[in-house]
Write a structure and sequence with these properties.
Elements lengths: L1 E2 L6 E2 L14 E2 L9 E9 L11 E9 L4 E8 L8 E9 L2 E7 L4 E3 L5 E3 H7 L13 E7 L4 E8 L2 E4 L5 E4 L2 E11 L22 H8 L4 E7 H14 L3 E5 L10 H4 L9 E6 L4 H13 L2
Antiparallel strand pairs: 1-2, 1-3, 4-5, 4-15, 5-6, 6-7, 7-8, 8-11, 9-10, 11-12, 12-15, 13-14, 16-18, 17-18
Length: 296
């Protein structure tokens, strides 16, 4: 039998696509029942982080599955790109789906140029005190076993705030990406090298929801507006939950923030604002813009 990785519905082996959600079916061959053993994997960061290309980091998982599909283990990442130290793994595997939480002893974030910096370095760079290295926030992995020896999926670090010693806090952005891993051996004493032998991040096997979680959804432009007109529309956007982004005419970076933050509190610093909205909200957003124009 084959299974849909999204809804879980079962199909005969001669069916290729789920009729409910259109996802590619998995299975039909031998499927691993337990994840116990050594896995060799690779992860990368999606383009939604503003990086067209990002280094791939190889890692080793050593897992042991116990009762009720629960498993635990350790993870190490390869130098020089990987995070230092031995991290912990805690998750569940109900063939063919897998999900686990990864925690590393030292937390890192990705800079705008693709380089890593520790959370402590990030806090110090913001001019705030931080006496020691901080652990990583939880990293949530989910995926699917493609066959008995391969699995792949997506990972997410949610936006979070780091409390500081002085009672204040500093925030970090959401980060997401892809991962894949290949089974090496059931002997957890083995120290493997090299990477997965299968294709890296076969996106055709991921659902649309998974792709959007990592890559994001391109927002559609409504055009350019002066500050006064933009503020009227954005106030209504906020009341109706319209998802939007802003771009100042002389600033190539989009900002998800109020107009006054974008302009520094001075409308004269940006004569025009370009407004972008989520494609699912575009029709209603256009109606709001039309309504605002009638009120002029």
């Amino acid at each position: 039998m084959k299974n849909c990785p999204y809804c879980g519905k079962e199909y005969p082996n001669d069916v290729a696509v789920c009729v409910t959600d259109g996802n590619t079916l998995l299975g039909g061959n031998e499927i691993r029942e337990k994840v116990t053993g050594v896995w060799r994997g690779v992860y990368g960061i999606g383009k939604t982080q503003g990086l067209e290309e990002m280094r791939s980091v190889s890692f080793t998982l050593k897992l042991k599955q116990g009762w009720a599909n629960h498993f635990s283990g350790s993870v190490t990442e390869d130098p020089p790109q990987g995070v230092q130290g031995v991290g912990s793994i805690d998750g569940y595997f109900g063939s063919p789906t897998i999900e686990f939480t990864k925690r590393m002893p030292i937390g890192y974030i990705v800079g705008t140029n693709g380089t890593l910096m520790t959370l402590r370095e990030y806090i110090l760079a913001a001019g705030r005190p931080c006496e020691k290295e901080l652990p990583s926030p939880p990293i949530f992995y989910q995926g699917t076993a493609l066959d008995a020896d391969r699995m792949q999926g997506t990972w997410i670090i949610n936006q979070h705030r780091i409390p500081l010693a002085d009672g204040s806090s500093i925030s970090t952005a959401r980060t997401a990406g892809y991962w894949c891993a290949a089974f090496i051996t059931a002997d957890t004493k083995v120290v493997p090298t090299g990477g997965p032998t299968g294709p890296l991040f076969d996106k055709t096997l991921l659902s649309q929801r998974e792709l959007e979680e990592v890559e994001g959804v391109p927002f559609h432009s409504l055009g350019q507006f002066n500050i006064s007109d933009a503020e009227k529309c954005l106030d209504q956007f906020g009341q109706e939950g319209i998802r939007f982004e802003l771009k100042r005419d002389e600033d190539a970076m989009r900002k998800t923030m109020p107009v006054m933050e974008l302009t520094g509190g001075n409308a004269g610093t940006a004569q025009w604002i370009e407004m972008f909205v989520h494609p699912d909200d575009e029709q209603r957003a256009a109606e709001i813009v039309g309504e605002c124009n009638k009120l002029k």
